[in-house]
Structures are given as structure tokens and as C-alpha cells.
Specification:
- 48% of the residues lie in helices and 26% in strands.
- With 132 residues, it is α+β, with helices and mostly antiparallel strands.
- A hairpin with a 2-residue loop joins strand 2 and strand 3.
- Helix 2 packs antiparallel against helix 3.
Length: 132
């Protein structure tokens, strides 16, 4: 090979290149930004779902073994919702009589706007049985 072309060999370039290009960095930053934004939007919804689960488990533990009524169950749930600062529509909570007591079923959708016309949706669906 000619002496003036020695520095332009492919093997010589591969050793000198290191790091990430600006375009690669921007694509990576965009990807992390999109995933991070989804995380920021979803974390409060999952915290609320954990609060709902805790409220149902606490009401179940509190009223288990007692002679209770659907009104007492609803009142206990509403009191816990007031403490935990949870706001749900009344139709999201269903209390039905079961063989051993009452079944409390909460089904709730939580939506939050994400980007443009894209929304994130989390569905909470939990059921507990309060035994008499």
C-alpha cells in the first residue's frame, strides 16, 4: 500500500473511534424521556390502587366476624376513603350478599393523558369477602 494511505485503513479508524454520536445520544435521550414520562404518569395511579387495596383489606379485617350490614360496610369504606383522600364514584363500589357474609367489589378505571391523543389506562378490580 502507498505510504500516504496508511492512516486511512479501516482497522486504524476502528481503534480511534469511541463514544456515541450526537444523533445516537438524542435518540437514546428521547427513548429514556418517553419511558420516564410514562413512569411519572403511572406512579400516582398505582399508589392510589395500593391505597384502595389497603382500604379493602382493612375493612375486611375490621368487620370480619361481626354482624354487619351493607350500610355499615359502605360507611366504613367511605370513612377510610376520606382518611386516604380517595374519590371514587358510588357505582364503582358494589356490595352483594354472599353465602358467608358480604362480597365487596371495587372496579375502577383511572385514565391520564400521555402524549397528544394517547392516554394511559389503569384498571383496578378487587374483591374481598367479609365473613359474618
Amino acid at each position: 500500500m502507498e505510504p500516504h494511505r496508511k492512516g486511512y485503513r479501516v482497522t486504524g479508524l476502528a481503534r480511534r473511534q469511541a463514544g456515541i454520536t450526537v444523533i445516537g445520544f438524542l435518540l437514546l435521550a428521547t427513548l429514556f424521556g418517553i419511558v420516564g414520562l410514562a413512569g411519572i404518569k403511572l406512579v400516582p395511579m398505582y399508589i392510589q390502587n395500593m391505597k384502595l387495596s389497603r382500604v379493602l383489606e382493612d375493612v375486611q379485617r375490621e368487620l370480619a366476624g361481626q354482624s354487619t350490614t351493607p350500610q355499615a360496610i359502605r360507611r366504613a369504606i367511605d370513612n377510610r376513603f376520606a382518611i386516604e383522600d380517595i374519590d371514587l364514584p358510588n357505582e364503582a363500589i358494589k356490595i352483594n350478599q354472599s353465602r358467608n357474609g358480604y362480597e365487596v367489589h371495587i372496579q375502577h378505571e383511572n385514565r391520564v393523558p400521555y402524549i397528544a391523543d394517547v392516554w394511559l389506562l389503569v384498571v383496578f378490580d378487587k374483591q374481598v369477602e367479609i365473613v359474618r
